[in-house]
Specification:
By secondary structure, the protein is of the alpha/beta class. The chain has twelve helices and 13 strands.
Length: about 375
């Protein structure tokens, strides 16, 4: 009965929360860069496979709007960390399979520069725009100009849902947070002191924090004894130093049962501090995943027990497919959330695995079939220019 009531509380909170924006690095003084990068081309198929594919897709008409080399702008707030690198890889791979080119604009955490990059992309008359993070307060005017100019826009992890015609995708931050927090509570039998590493001002983090507030009400015997966190150019290293100070303040085993770090850069810093102090009885739970994170999770006696995540490369691919659907004139949803997965240390093998191999151990990982139109295989199989 209590479980059912809590589910209603969570659902109500999510409905009341509204959509806002995932993980953040802080602004740096480094100038934002614009780079034009030919996207990766699709691997060649064996002759018999290519023939079968050609026969299967021969009857599918490719929309003329996408049956050419398109220029796709990717306007990013930041590109720090392996998550961002793998997301970018997913975008480039999917655009490359479609025979297009990606123009990357990186604002290095500066929203004003991000808005300027968006204006540049519009002025260059690109065929479509992908937006990675950012906030409506800085970007909404530019996005409205893009839509008015007939340039389709698909955004990821931000609050641009008030612009008509824009598709907003995310990782379902509410589910991500609840998966990780529920696992944390179960691992410490619903009682103990925890440290919360968090920073506000970013929509995904705000969403995750709403679930955390409910979590503390659901588990009244779990007590937060410390909270800190900041987004900096060296977030993981700075978090490590702050966590070291917390460990000195609470020096005894049993003082801290677990750490909740709803961004993998926070989790990395906490894990390194805990290992260095020999306090591996403290359990760490996080959100997001990358190859670097997997290495830390799989280390012997690692305190990092689980992370709730979606495949960042898969996010980039799905976002790109939605954009091509828009360019082709097909209807797309206003909102779309990718299904998250809980990746637990105990479910992984003793031998090291990477993000590509993770699907062998986590059902559904990296295999989203969202935003796939019948003509897409035909477009992918065409010879690339």
């Amino acid at each position: 009965m209590f479980k059912k009531s809590f589910s209603l509380i969570v659902a109500g909170a999510i409905l009341l929360a509204g959509c806002t924006n995932e993980q953040p690095p802080a602004p740096t003084s480094q100038a934002a860069q614009q780079t034009a990068t030919p996207a990766a081309t699709a691997p060649q198929q064996p002759a018999n496979a290519a023939s079968a594919s050609a026969n299967a897709t021969a009857s599918v008409a490719i929309p003329s709007a996408v049956d050419k080399k398109l220029k796709i702008a990717l306007v990013s707030e930041f590109s720090i960390g392996t998550f961002s690198a793998q997301y970018l890889q997913g975008v480039k791979e999917q655009v490359g399979k479609f025979g297009g080119e990606v123009i990357v604009y990186n604002a290095d955490g500066d929203l004003a520069k991000m808005a300027a990059h968006l204006d540049t992309a519009i002025n260059q008359k690109v065929d479509g725009i992908l937006i990675n993070h950012g906030r409506a307060e800085a970007l909404q005017a530019g996005v409205e100009r893009a839509v008015k100019a007939g340039i389709p826009v698909v955004s990821f992890d931000n609050d641009l849902d008030q612009v008509e015609g824009v598709t907003v995708i995310d990782q379902d931050d509410y589910s991500l947070a609840w998966q990780g927090l529920k696992n944390l509570a179960q691992s410490i039998d619903g009682k103990g002191n925890i440290v919360y590493i968090w920073v506000g001002g970013f929509a995904p983090m705000e969403k995750r924090n709403r679930v955390y507030d409910i979590f503390l009400k659901r588990y009244p015997n779990i007590k937060e004894i410390a909270r800190f966190g900041s987004a900096t150019p060296n977030t993981a290293l700075d978090t490590q130093a702050q966590m070291e100070a917390i460990l000195k303040k609470y020096p005894n085993k049993g003082d801290i049962a677990a750490v909740w770090a709803p961004w993998d850069e926070f989790a990395k810093g906490a894990v390194r501090a805990i290992k260095a102090a020999g306090r591996t009885e403290i359990k760490v739970f996080g959100i997001d995943l990358s190859d670097e994170d997997l290495q830390l999770i799989q280390e012997k006696d690692s305190p990092w027990k689980a992370s709730a995540a979606t495949d960042p490369a898969d996010i980039g691919k799905v976002q790109t497919r939605f954009l091509y659907q828009k360019i082709a004139g097909e209807p797309t949803p206003k909102y779309f959330s990718l299904d998250p997965h809980l990746v637990a240390k105990e479910k992984l093998p003793d031998t090291p695995v990477n993000m590509t191999q993770l699907g062998e151990f986590v059902d559904g990982w990296g295999k989203s079939d969202a935003a796939i139109s019948p003509w897409m295989p035909a477009l992918e199989s065409k010879p690339k220019q």
